[in-house]
């Protein structure tokens, strides 16, 4: 069963689209949602695979244009654009004009009720109906069936326990 975006998810995503480096507290102020809720919703969107990462957008116009470095700058620009393009990110030659258009297009597509397809974290198959969820530390993993959830738990038992110990130690320090 796909996960549907609600108004909270949409407002967080739109805030991140403006500047992906914003602290959660600033997103909280802009959206009127509490900081813990912003963090939890962001982590959920990452865990289900909707947010793959926050990537930089480069302004290649800022690169120096000394005659002997021109070839190096062109090669760097092509290499970075290829790298970013392979990650399905926004690539643009003139970020000031095209980036706003790209963000506007994305914002139009992201609305309340948009369904996000969730795949099983063990078998990579589609999840129909309500997913089986394994929660540990601040991580959620989604499975299509109890067998996949059990198989994942057995396969990654050591890692899960290690993450739990680190997370418990971290929360004790924070208090």
Q: Indicate the CATH topology of the largest domain.
A: Arc Repressor Mutant, subunit A
Question: From the helix content, strand content and strand pairing, which structural class follows?
Answer: mainly alpha
Note poorly predicted spans.
87-96
Taking the sheet with the most strands, its summary is: 2 strands, antiparallel
Biggest sheet strand order reads 1-2
Oligomer: single chain
Number of helices: 7
The total of beta strands comes to 4
Q: For this structure, what is the CATH homologous superfamily of the largest domain?
A: Winged helix-like DNA-binding domain superfamily/Winged helix DNA-binding domain
Q: What is the mean pLDDT?
A: 78
- DSSP helix fraction: 40-55%
Write up what this structure looks like.
This protein has 175 residues and is mainly alpha-helical. Helices cover 53% and strands 8% of the residues. It has 7 helices and 4 strands, in the order βαααααβββαα. It has helices at residues 7-18, 24-31, 35-47, 70-86, 95-109, 146-155, 157-174, and strands at 3-4, 115-116, 132-136, 139-143. A two-stranded antiparallel sheet has the order 1-2. The chain has a two-stranded antiparallel sheet with strand order 3-4. Strand 3 (132-136) and strand 4 form a beta hairpin. Helix 1 (7-18) crosses helix 3. The radius of gyration is 20 Å and the shape is globular. The chain starts with a strand and ends with a helix.
């Amino acid at each position: 069963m796909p996960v549907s975006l609600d108004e909270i998810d949409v407002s967080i995503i739109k805030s991140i689209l403006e500047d992906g480096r914003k602290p959660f507290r600033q997103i909280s102020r802009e959206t009127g949602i509490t900081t813990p809720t912003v963090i939890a919703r962001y982590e959920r969107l990452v865990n289900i695979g909707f947010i793959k990462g926050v990537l930089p957008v480069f302004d290649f116009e800022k690169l120096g244009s000394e005659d002997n470095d021109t070839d190096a700058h062109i090669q760097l620009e092509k290499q970075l654009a290829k790298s970013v393009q392979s990650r399905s990110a926004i690539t643009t030659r003139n970020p000031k004009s095209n980036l706003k258009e790209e963000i506007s297009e994305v914002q139009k597509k992201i609305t309340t009720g948009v369904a996000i397809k969730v795949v099983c974290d063990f078998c990579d198959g589609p999840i129909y109906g309500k997913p089986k969820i394994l929660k540990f530390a601040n991580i959620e993993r989604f499975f299509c069936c109890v067998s996949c959830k059990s198989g994942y738990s057995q396969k990654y038992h050591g890692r899960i326990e290690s993450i739990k110990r680190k997370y418990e130690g971290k929360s004790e320090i924070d208090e």
